[in-house]
Amino acid sequence: MTRHLFLSSLLALSATGALADEIRVLNWQGYGTDLGWAVEAFAEATGHSVVHEYFTSEQEMLTKLRTNPGAYDVVLINAAFTRQARDEGLIGAIDTSGMANFGTVADGFLESELVIDGAVFGVPWTWGLTSFAVNTAAFETVPDSIEVFWDPAHKGRVSIRDDALEVVQFGALATGQDINDIADLDAVEAKLAELMPQIRTFWSSENDWNQFMAAGELDVATYWSGSAARSADMGLPVEFVVPKEGAVAWLDGLSIPDSSTKKEAAVAFIDWMIDPEFYVGWDKEGAPASANAAAADALPDDSFNKRVLGDPDVVARVTFQAPVDDATREKYLALWQGLKARQ
Amino acid sequence: MAGTLSAGDGRRAARLLAPAYLWLTLAVFLPLSAMLFFSFLTAAPFGDKPVEATLSNYRAFFETSTYALLLWKSIKLGLWVTGACILIGYPCALVLAKQIRGRAREALFLLVILPFWSNSLVRIFSWAIVLRGNGVLDRALDAVWPGDVRLALMFTPAAVVIGLVHSYLPYVILTSYLALQAIDDDIVEAARSLGARRLTILWRLVLPLSLPGLLAGAVLVFVPVVGSFMEPRILGGRFGTYYGTVIEDQFVAVFNWPLGAALSFILLAVVLLILGVSSPVLRRGMQ
Fold it and tell me: A99 to each of A241, A267, A298, how far by Cα in Å?
C-alpha cells in the first residue's frame, strides 16, 4: 500500500521532470543514501540514477561544495553547519511543496537550524544522540550516571571518541554545564584530565568500537545511538545509556546546493529518503532516528529507535547541538590536543 | 676524476641524469613546494574564500607548549626505535653475513625481507591481534606459564615501539649486511692469527668497517619514525598521540592544511638540524 503510494507520488513528480537524470549525492559513506536496494527502488520508480561521493569531515564537505559548484545535487549537512553553508551561498532554499512526505516531518525539527527565516535549507532527515554504551557483561545494573567513566572500578576499561568537540561537550555534561555555552572551560579541562588515566584507548570509527567491545577490552565507552542499535543487532552485549546528566543530540538534514541543475530529481530523492517505507527498511539494518514522525511511528515496537529514543523522558534530557564557530572549535581542539600530548 | 671530465662527457652525463632530475622535480620538488606555499596561507586555497599570506601557522607552534612537547615525544620515540633496531638488527646482519652460508642464508634473508611484502597496515593490525588483552600472546604465555599472565602490552608506548621496530628492522639488517659482506674475510683471519680475541675483532675491526652501513640504516629508521602516525594511533591507545598524529589530524580531521603543512616543515627542519648536528659523527663513521 505505502509502496503503491510512494510509486504513484514519485511518478507524478517525474512526469513533470522531463527525462531521467543522474543525481550526485555527497554524504558520509554507508549513511543511508547509498543503500543498494534503496537506490535501485528509486531508479525503478523515477528513472533517476544516483551516484555517490563521500566526505570524511564536515570541513571537507564544505570545501567540496565550495570548489565544485554544480557537481552535487543532494548533500547531507549537520544542522550545526547548515547556517554556515547558507551564509556562504552554497545551498539554496528547498521547495517542499512537491514532497509527499514533508507534511509529517515532526514540528520540532522545523524549528531547528535547518529552517532559516521560514525557508527550508535542509529537510530534517535523521537525528540521534551522542551518549555512551556499556558492556552488559561488566555491569549488574546498567549505570544511570556519566560518573561511571570516573569510577576506579573501571579504570583502563573506558574509551571515548578522539574528537575535540565531542570530548569537550562530554566534559561539559559531566560538570553540569550547558553544552552550547560552556562557561567554565577550566573545569571541563580539569574533569577531563582526571578521566585520562581511566582511558584504555580512543576510538575513531564504529568498526573500531565494535572490535574493542568484541575483544572485551572495554566496559563503557561513548557512542552514538544509531551505532549502538547496529552493534546490538550484531550480537554484542551492549546497552545504550542516556544518563541523568543528559546527552548531546544532533540533527542531520538533506540540502540541495544552490548550483544544482537537477533540483527536481534532487527533491524527489529527498522525498524518498524521508519516506516511511524507506526508513522501516533502513531501520532493519540499523538506522539513526527519523525526523519524520510518520516514519518513526511505522517502526515495530521492539525497534531500538522506538524503544529508547521514543521515550519522552529521554527526549526531555537531551540538548540539541548548536552551531559552533571556528574560534571556539579551535579553542576546544587546543584543549584536547594539550590533554592528549601530556599522556 | 670529476675534474678530468671532457665537455662531451659532461653533456652525456647531463643527458643520462636528466630523467632522474626530471623525476625528482615532478615527484618531490613540486608537491613539496605546493605544501610550503600552503603553510604560509590563512586557509587552503580551495574555493572562493579569500586567502592571505601569514606566518601565524608557524607562530602556532611556539604559542603553546603542546607541539614542542609532542615533537620531543616523537624524537624520543625515534631514538628508542632506532636503538632497538640496531641492537636487534646488527647482530642478525652479522650472523647472516659471516656465519651462515648457502641455502640457509637465502632462506633467512627471505624471512628478513618478508615483512616488506605485506602492507604495513596489515602488519600493524596483526600486532594488535597479538598484543591485545586475551590476545594471541597472552594466551600462548598462559598455556606455558603457571598462574595468570597479563602482559597488557596493547595501548602502551611499548606496543608502539614493538610495531615500529618490526616495520623498520629490515632497513638496518639490509644496510648492515651489505657493509658486513664487503669486509674481506682475510682481514679477520689476519687479526685472528695475530692473537686478537673475538670481541676485539668485533669492536676494533668489524664494527668500524661496517659503521657506514649501520649509520645509513639508523638514519633510514630514525627519520620516518619521528613522523610516524599510523602505528601510534592503532597501537598506542591514549598514549598514541605524537607529532605525526597531530599533523595527520590537521589534514584529515579538522581540514586545516596550512597548519598541517607548517608543522610538517618544522619537523623537516628539526630532523635536518639533528642530522646536521650529528653529521661530524656520521661523516667520520661513513669514511
Answer: 35, 7, 19
A316 touches chain B (CB under 8 A): no
For residues A343 and B19, give the distance between their C-alpha atoms in angstroms, rounded to a whole number: 47
Name the CA dihedral angle for A258, A263, A266, A267, rounded to a multiple of 10 degrees.
Answer: 100
Chain B contacts in chain A segment 87-116 (CB below 8 A): 88
Whichever domain contains A196, its CATH number is 3.40.190.10
What domain count does chain A have?
A: 2
Asked if the Cβ–Cβ distance from B254 to A163 is below 8 Å, we say no
Element (H, E) at B151: none
What is the domain range of residue A61? 2-126+250-307
Q: Cβ separation of A202 and B132 shorter than 8 Å?
A: no
Is the distance from CB of A124 to CB of A118 less than 8 angstroms? no
Q: Which residues of B touch A195 (CB under 8 A)?
A: none
Q: Are B263 and B246 in contact (CB under 8 A)?
A: yes
Tally DSSP H helices, then E strands, for chain A.
Answer: 15, 14
**Please, which residues bridge with residue B230 across strands?**
none
Residues A108 and A194 in one domain: no
Asked whether residue A212 is domain-assigned, the answer is yes
In the numeric block, the cell 611556539 is attached to B62
Residues 196-225 of A with CB under 8 A from B: 196, 199-202, 215-217
Fold held by B65-286: MetI-like fold (1.10.3720)
Q: Which residue type, as a one-letter code, is found at position B47? A: G
Tens place of pLDDT per residue across chain A (343 aa): 455 555 555 555 544 444 688 999 999 988 899 999 999 999 999 999 999 999 877 878 988 898 888 999 999 999 989 998 999 899 999 999 989 999 999 888 888 889 999 999 999 999 999 999 999 999 999 999 999 999 999 999 999 998 899 999 999 999 999 999 999 999 999 999 999 999 999 998 888 899 889 888 899 999 998 889 889 888 899 999 999 999 999 999 999 999 999 999 999 999 999 999 999 999 888 888 899 989 988 998 888 888 878 778 888 889 999 988 888 988 998 899 999 998 8
DSSP string, B197-215: -HHHIIIIIIHHHHHHHHH
